[in-house]
Prior knowledge:
The longest helix is centred in the N-terminal third of the chain and has 23 residues, at 45-67. The protein has an eight-stranded mixed beta sheet with strand order 4-3-2-6-5-1-11-12. A four-stranded antiparallel beta sheet has the order 7-8-9-10. It is globular, with a radius of gyration of 18 Å. The chain contains ten helices and twelve strands. The chain has helices at residues 2-12, 14-18, 45-67, 72-84, 129-139, 147-156, 170-186, 251-256, 259-270, 274-286; strands at 28-36, 105-111, 117-123, 144-146, 198-203, 209-215, 236-239, 243-249, 293-299, 304-305, 312-319, 324-329. The chain has one domain (2-12, 27-329): Glutamine Phosphoribosylpyrophosphate, subunit 1, domain 1 (4-Layer Sandwich), CATH 3.60.20. With 330 residues, the chain is an alpha+beta fold.
Amino acid sequence: MRNFSCLLAGLLLTAFSLSSMASEGNYTLVIHGGAGNISRENISEEREKEYFEKLNEALSAGETILSEGGNSLDAVEAAVRILEDSPLFNAGKGAVFNYAGNNELDASIMCGNTLNAGAVAGVTNIRNPISGARKVMENSPHVMLTGKGAEQFCYEQGLDVVDPSYFFDQRRWEQYRNYLRRSRQQGALYDNPSLGTVGAVALDTHGNLAAATSTGGMTGKRFGRIGDSPVIGAGTYARNGAGAVSATGHGEFFIKHVVAYDIIAQMLYLDRSIDEAAMLLIHEVLGEMEVNGGVIAVDKDGNISMPFNTTGMFRGYVKSTGETGVMIFE
């Protein structure tokens, strides 16, 4: 039944897929490591070099797959896994701590060809949550699994399960302790979103689009909070014939505004370019509400958009044309 559904979805999207034929043979990969009010003064030259090296490593992992004719799903998963394994970003190994002093991880992935999607949320022992999300998409009848159920499923799927102590990072621990101190001083929960979500979007040489997002959430999050990253349509969305989007920012607002899907909907129904749609969401809809964040996006022709309304966003891209770039600030 699952295979039949995938086939049916593919047939229903044939009209959109045909419009992607112009991109046959070309590929594009875009990644992000989160947006935030990042200060140049607070990043040493050595640390900045580390960020650039890791972003380039993630781009290289994804591009290797795309340049050999591989599919966009493999490319975004490979790129995100690199970022999850680095303590530099708020995902996987670098995840922030929740109010209880634990790491809870969320991730999602989506196939633009079939509209199939998978997500895990609130997991504590899956080394690479993005791979867990893909297993949910491909090997379960569900879209999202959470907590212990998601962990059990990932274990049964043979994914790399680690002791939760694997995710401990001293720098994140100090951020958490500072969060607690400031919360007590202010007599209430200190609003301190950790905008270090990672993500990737890709167009492969067959015209197929994919998107993936992974995060450790917000420092000090409570009560099993889940943000936009594992929510299809909010933090992640991909549709052949249109585009693919991965978001980073204050998740509650990205959920309310269905940001990732809204960008694609504007393209489909208002005939806006991917950059027009992404810029509108980030700078007008969210910006006017003083909601911090950004998105990365790629359309069916390989055009990209990387808007953010903060002082910086870790991001990079590579195209089959040889065009490439890695950036933090504007």
